[in-house]
């Protein structure tokens, strides 16, 4: 009896996995074209935060993303190198101030990433 | 002697692509909401409130009765609320975020409890004839609301809340004839000074 139930469970699990595989296979052809630069969580967060603000300072972003100086610097530099954000350095009194803005390319990249995600969800719902 | 069974834990399946996509969209929306709330308070709105408060202080100073004085400041509170709502909505729209998604909700939730408490205690003090304590109470409780709401915002906002609280505490200990001018310094002066700082640093 127990064996029959285990067998039934296993069959159900397999069919669920198969269904998922079929859906994923449909969606996977979209995955290679994903923008890897903003797909990473921290970078996606930085771009999203800057999309909602004209500009944010390094400290604002650090506090918003709840991260360390080093981690934020690394990811911000990658986005800057990719041309998605622009960085300006200035002095406020004697204190250095680093400010970030989203570039046109960055906004476009976020929009295209959003539509990519929506397409994925839409395809899965229709499958 | 009992037999030993090797238990191999079942591997958790990785989330499906569409689940990850939904999770990413949720993350983007939440980050944008948090970022909008972060700088959602309108600096120029605060400046406008400051000027109307100074005008109200000069009008209320000419009133002969406490009731008339109270009516002027009540009208000012309504005007300030309308200006604050309009300016936050404008800033949220500029960032393409709906007002009630983040900034509006956080400001409303943090400011409402102390304002409600202030209204109740005002009635109690008025009935007890302790009207001299009302200006200090208003400044103190407004500062409390700004300080708690400001915890989700840029660092200058909680500092403004602290200044209001300090001014409110001082108002309790100065002669009653100065209370109206301390209200002007707080609701007028502090709003203008911090409003300009917020507008210059955080885009409007």
Short description:
With about 130 residues, chain A is α+β, with helices and mostly antiparallel strands. Chain A contains six helices and three strands.
**In percent, how helical is the residue content of chain B?**
over 70%
Q: What separation lies between the terminal Cα atoms of chain A?
A: 36 Å
Count of DSSP-assigned helices of chain A: 6
Overall, the morphology of chain A is: elongated
- Low-confidence stretches of chain B are none
What is the 3D form of chain B? elongated
- Helix/strand-derived category of chain A reads alpha+beta
C-alpha Rg of chain B (nearest Å): 24 Å
Number of strands of chain A: 3
3D architecture notes:
Helices cover 68% and strands 14% of the residues of chain A. Chain A is an alpha+beta fold. In chain A, strands 1-3-2 form a three-stranded antiparallel β-sheet. Chain A is elongated. Chain A starts with a helix and ends with a helix. With 204 residues, chain B is an all-alpha fold. Chain B has seven helices and no strands. Chain B has helices at 17-38, 43-61, 66-94, 103-128, 134-150, 156-171, 179-201. Chain B is elongated, with a radius of gyration of 24 Å. The A-B interface holds A 17, 20, 23-24, 27-28, 31, 41, 44-45, 48-56, 60, 63-64, 110, 114, 117-118, 120-121, 123-125 and B 13, 16-18, 21-22, 24-25, 27-28, 31-36, 38-39, 95-97, 154, 202-203.
Question: What are the defining features of this structure?
Answer:
heterodimer; A: 127 residues; alpha+beta; three-stranded antiparallel β-sheet; elongated; B: 204 residues; mainly alpha; 7 helices; 75% helix
Lay out the secondary structure.
The complex is a heterodimer of chains A (127) and B (204).
Chain A: H1 2-28, H2 36-39, H3 41-51, E1 56-57, H4 58-65, H5 69-81, E2 85-92, E3 95-102, H6 104-126
Antiparallel strand pairs in A: 1-3, 2-3
Chain B: H1 17-38, H2 43-61, H3 66-94, H4 103-128, H5 134-150, H6 156-171, H7 179-201
Helix pairs in contact in B: 2-3, 2-7, 4-5, 5-6, 6-7
